[in-house]
Amino acid sequence: MDRGTRIAVLGAGLAGLTAAGLLQRAGFSVDVYDQSPSFSRIGAGIILGANVSKVLRRLDLEKAFAATGIRPDTFLSRAWDSGEQLYRLDFDAECEARFGGPFVNIHRADLHQLLQRPLAPGTIRFGHKLAGIDERVDGLTLHFDNGTRGEADIAIGADGIRSVTRDFILGAEEPRFVGRSAPRAVFPASRIKGKPIADCTKWWAPDRHTLAYYMTPDRNEVYVMAALPAARWDGDGSPVKGDRDEFIAAFDGAHADLKRVTEAAQDVTVWPIFDRPRSDTWYKGRVVLMGDASHAVRPFMAAGGSMAIEDAAILARCIAEFDDPATAFARYTAIRIPRVADVQEISIANSWMHGPTETDWFFGYDPCIVPLDRVLPEATCPILKR
Ligand SMILES: Cc1cc2nc3c(=O)[nH]c(=O)nc-3n(C[C@H](O)[C@H](O)[C@H](O)COP(=O)(O)OP(=O)(O)OC[C@H]3O[C@@H](n4cnc5c(N)ncnc54)[C@H](O)[C@@H]3O)c2cc1C
Q: Which ranges of the chain have pLDDT less than 70?
């Protein structure tokens, strides 16, 4: 598209910040609007693989990304009670060479800080909650609940699972509660008694699981997150205060290594887990969706953030490459929908790296170089035989 195209990015999360950085690098004028008054270091950890490192490389952030978070030495899957090792992926030099980049576990807020670095000063307008969009033949007017308006030629909805942009395209529809809640805690590693824990372990029980990992290079901060059955959730998507004893009791009978983690947890909060059923409508006219706004997945594959960042890379390339929004958005969705659909399916099954798993198609993917004129075979998962 013409480099004079005015682009509004709605939402300054992982998808929005990545897209804004890449589009500015490509020469576009970009405004990012976010509802938050400012960013703060709240939230928890996120696991990201080489498919994401390759995108951050394009923003000259890869080294800082890997140095701010931890490059875990291993991902382990273990049985929650016997401790039996079910699967192991070693993140050694051979693995990094095979996938084309490092794996990094990082505090989400630290990643947000990094993703803001490449942006031109003043790009992000905080305190701008999108309230509605008017589309005309020649452009868009964005309405914010602080009473201000913005003008743009195209808008990218990156406003998360409760996206107002999505409502504009698809009509209002609540996200789906998946029957699981997620107790989470971030705490100093010094609270863990005895020997240090492994860098990143998923503990599997028949109807629940726990993921525990370090988030910093010096291994001084631990993040633990579980998924437990929950028949219902009263309230919106906001977290509620949790009970540490209930969290420990949920894994009563756990292997000693898991018990040391649950017993170290403090300040537990409980988050409901929502997702979105698959939708293949990601754009309308001048407005397009990415990330959780179009395809929020349940966090069991730890891949929603990766999909958001991959979306940003492919969408930025399509906007730069093709002449008009219709062509750019059609190519973007043709490339993204099959891959995201695979991730949605695996996330629902909660089967990722439970046992022997083919991972090359996922971590080896490079959204910065896949051809834009066709859907590559690599973009579909060999695990799922469609
Ligand atoms: C418990 C849990 C653990 C997870 N772990 C992982 C993991 O390990 N690895 C991984 O890859 N993924 C993980 N995910 C998924 C990942 O967090 C999301 O998929 C990812 O954050 C989506 O990015 P996004 O940019 O689309 O949306 P978000 O990061 O949610 O950003 C949306 C942005 O839009 C803003 N916004 C919202 N509404 C409006 C509005 N009306 N107007 C203006 N701004 C608005 C918000 O303030 C926010 O800044 C996890 C998710 C959960 C729930």
A: 41, 375-381, 385-386
Domains of the chain: 6-72+102-174+276-379 (3.50.50.60), 178-274 (3.30.9.30)
- Quick one: which atom of ligand 1 is closest to the CA of 129? 42
Question: How does pLDDT run across 106-150, given as a tens digit for each residue?
Answer: 999 999 999 999 999 999 999 999 999 999 999 999 999 999 999
- Per the residue annotation, which of 214, 283, 332, 365 is the catalytic one? 214
Residues 25, 115: Cα–Cα separation, whole Å? 13
Cβ(150) – ligand 1 distance below 6 Å: no
Q: Is 332 an annotated catalytic residue?
A: no
Query: Under a CB-based contact definition with an 8 Å cutoff, are residues 115 and 9 in contact?
Result: no
47 lines ligand 1 (CB under 6 A): yes
Expressed in angstroms and rounded, the spacing between residue 84 Cα and the centre of ligand 1 is 33
pLDDT digits (tens, 9 = 90+) for 25-61: 999 999 999 999 988 767 789 999 999 999 999 999 9
